[in-house]
Amino acid sequence: LQESQDVFHRFPLQLVHGIPLMEPIAQQWGPIENFQARPDDLLISTYPKAGTTWMQEIVDLILVQGDVEKACRAPTHIRIPFLEICSPPPVPSGVQQLANVPSPRVIKTHLPFQLVPKSFWENRCKVIYVARNAKDNVVSYYFFDQMNKTQPEPGPWELYLQMFMDGKLAWGSWYDHVCRYWAERANHCILYVFYEDMKEDPAREIRRVMDFLEVELPPQVLEKIVQQTSFQIMKENPMTNYSSVPSTIFDQTVSPFMRKGQVGDWKNHFTVAQSEAFDAHYQRRMEGTGLHFRTQI
Ligand code: A3P
C-alpha cells in the first residue's frame, strides 16, 4: 500500500446498476459481480459508517475465542477483506485478496442487497447486517469523507446532508440500504443488528452474534470481548484504528477514524431547521417499512 500512494486520489462516483460507487469499483465491477462465495463465508454488511469495524472486531474475537493476541495478528482490513474495494493496479482488489484467504472467510461489504454477488445467496451464506440511525450515520460519514482522500470532497454540511437524503453519496441511498436488508431477513440468513443496541448493551448484542455463529464461550470470555471492543480500546489499538493506512489515504489529522463512537452526536451538527426537514423527509421514506431506529439512548 505504502508504495502505491500515487495511485490514490479522490475518485469520482460512477453508477453501477443505478448505485453510485467509486470509479475504480465501477470499472472493475465484473469480478465483483461474479465473485464466488463459499458456503462457509460470513458476510458483514453495512451502509458506510454504521459500525462495520466494530462488528468486524467482535466477530474476529468470537472466532478466535477471545484470544486478544490472535485478534491483533493484523489490521482489520487484512483480517477481514473488503469485498468490492478496488484501487487502480497494482494495489490488489478485495476480490484478489479474498482468493488467497483460507476458509472460513469473513468478508466486509457496503453493497446494497441487490448488488451483493448472487453466489452469497445461492450458497445460503450467513450475513450480519449492522444498521445505524440515519442522523448519526450521515454525521459520521461527513467527517469520514473529509479524512478519506479516496472519496469525493464532502463540501459544505448543508449540501452533504441533502446528497445523503437524495441517495447520492457513495454506496447510494441509506434508506434503500437499511430497508432492503430488513425486508430480506425473512428470505435469507441475515442477522440484523442496530448500532444503538450495541451501545446500549454490548454483551447482549455480542451474545446474539455468538448464537448466530453457533459459538459458545464462557461468560468471562464474553466479558473480555466486551472490553476489547469498547470504543476507547479500539481507538488505541493499532490493529483496529486504521493507523496502518497511510495518511495519504486516511488523514487522521483531519478527523480520526475512531471519531466519537456515540449515539446522538447528530445534535451537535444538525440545526433545528435541518433536523425538522430531515425528519419530515425521513417519515415519508420510512413509512410502512416496520423499521425503527433510535436517535438517542
Ligand atoms: P463516529 O464517526 O460517529 O465516531 P465504520 O466502521 O462502519 O466505518 O463506522 C465507523 C463509526 O463507528 C465511527 O463513528 C466510529 O467511531 C464508530 N465505532 C468504531 N468502533 C466503535 C466502538 N467500539 N464503539 C462505538 N463506536 C465505534
Quick summary:
By secondary structure, the protein is of the alpha/beta class. It has a single domain, classed as 3-Layer(aba) Sandwich (Rossmann fold), CATH 3.40.50.
Structure description:
- The chain is an alpha/beta fold and 297 residues long.
- The chain has a single domain, classed as P-loop containing nucleotide triphosphate hydrolases (Rossmann fold, 3-Layer(aba) Sandwich), CATH 3.40.50.300.
- Helix content is 42%, strand content 9%.
- The protein has a four-stranded parallel beta sheet, sandwiched between helices. The chain has a two-stranded antiparallel sheet with strand order 1-2.
- β1 (13-16) and β2 form a beta hairpin.
- α12 packs across α13 (219-228).
- The model has no long low-confidence stretch (mean pLDDT 97).
- The site of adenosine-3'-5'-diphosphate (A3P) has 20 residues, from α3, α8 and α14.
Bound molecules: adenosine-3'-5'-diphosphate
**Number of separate domains:** 1
CATH superfamily: P-loop containing nucleotide triphosphate hydrolases
The span between the termini is: 39 Å
Shape: globular
H-E order: EEHHEHHHHEHEHHHEHHHHH
What is the CATH topology descriptor? Rossmann fold
Order of strands side by side in the largest beta sheet?
Answer: 4-3-5-6
Percent strand equals 5-15%
Radius of gyration: 18 Å
Give a count of the beta strands, DSSP E runs of length 2 or more.
6
Return the average pLDDT rounded to an integer. 97
Q: Class by helix and strand content? A: alpha/beta
What is the share of helical residues?
40-55%
Specify the CATH class.
Answer: Alpha Beta
